[in-house]
């Protein structure tokens, strides 16, 4: 049995998505800016897709900008707002557990003279709202805090974060790449100015994402070129990718969330029942339906990953984007987890295509591997 439990890194493109995309390579391949019928058909597909993403946020179509993915959306939101508001202030607030797309955007801005506050998190990776309030100064122009964490699945209270920002007249950006279609964000109810999302995390194609930009949000564009995407993001639109992204949003249902929550509980309970000295990293509640992160004491996560891979079960250690580095995860360390326990952590991320049988197989396969690795472990 081949089991893919690394859906936090990327997901299988739903065959219904790739089928929908196909004609946009060979039939409707016009440039959406062209005036002829080829161009008009592409523009129509672009408009319909934009409407689908906008509806998912209860937003206006003109508030959605298509990008090349979550990384670009984060860069555009953070650098775009910082540069647009640099005369107003130079202080940005983020957290220690953000994705590198956010952390490294902030690091770049430090070189441009911005001052960044990196909020702490508690043992379950929640930020402290009081620390957020206390960090705000007259110079603060932007708060960027993720909706759900990619490593441990913690869902931050973005309604309350947004309200604090609104009360202080500060722009709020959230990276919702992991939570999109799993936890609703109604932009009429939650005070949020910018939201980053990505297609390949929700069974859409890679290389496409979007940024929700609330009407009136000041933003300087990152690259110069044509006036595409309401003059915010230059470059010919990736119509096939955008259509695929919209299709993947259309295919997401609340039933998928229920299914994943059941499988998540099955995996957590199954591992904790059958394997001693295992600790769930991150909260049990307010956790993404797709994320399970467990520390297996006395063993290295990488050895466990390799042994599971030999049994055709794909998991990850740390975050996928940085899993080639053998340093303990910055998220787990920020949560106060000891480095040796962080080293023994494995992230299992499920999807709507994951089955109960796959979870049973994973639990049954894990047990003897963990026993074998512990028997030879110098850490025990
Ligand atoms: C929370 C978060 N933000 C941003 C990204 C980057 O998204 P993309 O791969 O679409 O550039 C990821 C991808 O792992 C992520 O998990």
Coarse morphology = globular
Bound chemical compounds: pyridoxal-5'-phosphate
What structural class do you assign from the helix and strand content? alpha/beta
Biggest sheet: strands side by side, in what order?
A: 2-8-7-6-5-3-4
How is this structure best described in words?
The model is unreliable at 319-323 (pLDDT under 50). Helix 3 (70-84) packs parallel to helix 4 (100-111) and helix 9 packs parallel to helix 13. It is built from 13 helices and twelve strands. Strand 5 (140-144), helix 6 and strand 6 (171-175) form a beta-alpha-beta unit. The protein is an alpha/beta fold and 380 residues long. It has helices at residues 15-26, 37-56, 70-84, 100-111, 129-135, 158-167, 228-231, 239-251, 254-274, 301-310, 330-334, 339-343, 356-375, and strands at 3-4, 64-67, 91-95, 115-119, 140-144, 171-175, 194-198, 209-213, 278-280, 291-296, 313-314, 345-349. Strands 2-8-7-6-5-3-4 form a seven-stranded mixed β-sheet, with helices on both faces. A three-stranded antiparallel β-sheet has the order 9-10-12. The chain folds into two domains: 3-11 and 253-375, Aspartate Aminotransferase, domain 1, CATH 3.90.1150; 15-251, Type I PLP-dependent aspartate aminotransferase-like (Major domain) (Aspartate Aminotransferase, domain 2, 3-Layer(aba) Sandwich), CATH 3.40.640. Pyridoxal-5'-phosphate (PLP) binds at residues 69-71, 74, 99, 101, 146, 150, 175, 177-178, 198, 200, 209, 320-321.
């Amino acid at each position: 049995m081949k089991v893919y439990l690394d859906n936090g890194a990327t997901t299988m493109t739903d065959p219904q998505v790739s089928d929908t995309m196909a004609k946009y390579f060979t039939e409707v391949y016009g440039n959406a800016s062209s005036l002829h019928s080829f161009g008009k058909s592409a523009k129509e597909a672009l408009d319909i897709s934009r409407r689908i993403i906008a509806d998912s946020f209860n937003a206006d179509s003109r508030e959605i900008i298509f990008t090349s993915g979550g990384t670009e959306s984060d860069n555009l939101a953070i650098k775009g707002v910082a540069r647009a508001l640099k005369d107003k202030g130079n202080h940005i607030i983020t957290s220690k557990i953000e994705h590198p797309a956010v952390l490294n955007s902030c690091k770049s801005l430090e070189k441009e003279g911005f001052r960044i506050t990196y909020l702490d998190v508690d043992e379950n990776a929640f930020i402290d709202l009081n620390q957020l309030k206390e960090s705000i100064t007259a110079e603060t122009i932007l708060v960027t805090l993720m909706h759900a964490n990619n490593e441990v699945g913690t869902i931050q209270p973005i309604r309350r974060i947004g309200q604090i920002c609104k009360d202080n007249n500060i722009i709020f950006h959230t990276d919702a790449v992991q939570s999109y279609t799993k936890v609703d964000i109604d932009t009429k109810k939650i005070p949020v100015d910018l939201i980053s999302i990505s297609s390949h995390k929700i069974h859409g194609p890679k290389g496409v994402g979007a940024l929700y930009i609330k009407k009136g949000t000041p933003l300087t564009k990152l690259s110069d070129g044509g006036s595409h995407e309401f003059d915010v993001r230059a470059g010919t639109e990736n119509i096939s990718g955008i259509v695929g992204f919209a299709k993947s949003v259309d295919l997401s249902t609340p039933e998928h969330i229920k299914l994943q929550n059941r499988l998540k509980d099955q995996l957590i309970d199954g591992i904790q029942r059958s394997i001693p000295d295992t600790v769930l990293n991150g909260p049990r509640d307010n956790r993404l339906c797709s994320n399970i992160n467990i520390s297996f004491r006395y063993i290295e996560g990488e050895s466990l990953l390799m042994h599971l891979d030999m049994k055709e079960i794909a998991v990850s250690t740390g975050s996928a984007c940085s899993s080639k580095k053998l340093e303990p995860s910055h998220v787990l360390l920020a949560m106060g987890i000891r480095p040796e326990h962080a080293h023994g952590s494995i992230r299992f991320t499920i999807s709507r295509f994951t089955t109960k049988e796959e979870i049973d197989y994973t639990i049954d396969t894990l047990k003897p591997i963990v026993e074998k690795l512990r028997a030879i472990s110098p850490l025990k």
